[in-house]
Write a structure and sequence with these properties.
Helix content is 33%, strand content 1%. With 343 residues, it is mainly alpha-helical. It has one domain (50-329). Helix 1 (97-108) packs across helix 3, helix 2 crosses helix 3 (138-153) and helix 4 runs antiparallel to helix 5. The longest helix is centred in the middle third of the chain and has 16 residues, at 138-153. The radius of gyration is 19 Å and the shape is globular. Mean pLDDT is 78; it is low at 1-61 and 319-343.
């Protein structure tokens, strides 16, 4: 694809201006919205002056240009990995680089890029959040969380899906084994996706997203702990799995060999073990297409678009992934004291 894509939500759209009452379970660091800028937006107008977006042309795409999820609020719960100081074994913070990977996947599937708020609103609309409505920067935080989750998982072909893939590929990414990661993408991913990542210059961004720790910042428990329920397997013994349980697919054991883990206690997120693989992959694919979380995931049209992606030329994703982003996008977070709770 090319610059016919109409917009690109690398860092979400306009930051929420008004705050709101919290649920009492966490502490928010609100953005100084007077300093925050709008998202980087693509355009179909080729005469548009891209300098208004302050995109430099030096080919840089360094980590300092991405926004940490905690800029949209900190929700530290009982997880061992909500604080940066607690990231272990190659786990990294969640940043808006995940949105680049997410929109790259959407590009592959023939879909337009979306902003963080769009993904966040989808989550609120589908009972994938703690609260019924967003407060403060919840749309951005929740949107970034589910963009990351979709980018981590929805590339996997549903016929090849096995939860163990998420342990193996995230561990391998965190060990820095790029070639092995791409071998797994080739083996388990949608036809052509590995080549798409290489051609579009998105391999590093994809791998960096795989490294991100889902519990970091506490959004998983503090804002994205949805209670949408799924039908358990007939022989299930652990109860009815909810969206909050399925979200732990990408949470690994301390040694990073097992998926579906509660990383604080190093035991499984038990109800998730009773979810069917079909429901799980469809759930994560719904994040990519913003569809029904209990629906069929990707359609034949999405996969056909993916198979045709290689012949479509340079995409907006590839163009923006090789450019640095707004320096003034870095939000001014209010530093607040918080207490780490370990159960």
């Amino acid at each position: 694809m090319n610059l016919l894509l109409t917009f690109f939500g690398l860092f979400g759209a306009t930051f929420a201006i008004s705050g709101g009452s919290d649920d009492g379970a966490s502490t928010d660091s609100e953005l100084d919205t007077s300093e925050a800028s709008r998202a980087v937006v693509g355009t179909t107008d080729h005469d548009h002056d891209m300098s208004t977006h302050d995109i430099t042309d030096d080919g840089s795409n360094s980590p300092e240009n991405y926004i940490d999820i905690t800029a949209f609020g900190e929700h530290h719960t009982s997880s061992s990995h909500t604080y940066e100081s607690s990231l272990q074994g190659g786990r990294t913070a969640i940043t808006t680089e995940a949105q680049v990977a997410y929109n790259g996947l959407r590009d592959f599937l023939g879909l337009e890029p979306v902003e963080l708020e769009t993904v966040g609103q989808w989550a609120f609309d589908n009972d994938l959040t703690n609260n019924d409505m967003p407060y403060g920067q919840d749309l951005q935080a929740v949107g970034l969380f589910y963009s990351m989750q979709g980018a981590k998982v929805a590339w996997i072909d549903e016929d090849a899906f096995d939860p163990q893939i998420l342990a193996d590929i995230q561990r391998t990414a965190r060990l820095g084994e790029t070639d092995e990661v791409m071998d797994m993408v080739e083996a388990f991913g949608h036809d052509g996706f590995a080549t798409f990542l290489e051609t579009e210059g998105l391999v590093e961004t994809f791998i960096n997203t795989l490294k991100m720790e889902p519990h970091y910042g506490g959004t998983l428990h503090g804002r994205a702990f949805g209670d949408l329920e799924f039908v358990p397997e007939p022989n299930g013994v652990y109860g009815t799995p909810a969206a909050s349980d399925l979200n732990h697919l990408t949470v690994l054991s301390h040694d990073q060999t097992r998926p579906y883990m509660n990383d604080t206690f190093d035991w499984p997120q038990w109800p998730a073990l009773d979810a069917s693989d079909a429901d799980v992959i469809n759930y994560f694919q719904s994040m990519a297409v913003l569809g029904d979380p209990k629906g069929e995931g990707l359609t034949p049209e999405h996969l056909e678009a993916g198979s045709n992606a290689m012949s479509a030329g340079e995409s907006l994703m590839a163009h923006l992934a090789t450019h640095s982003v707004l320096e003034d996008m870095q939000p001014m977070a209010v530093e607040m004291e918080d207490t780490f709770v370990a159960l």
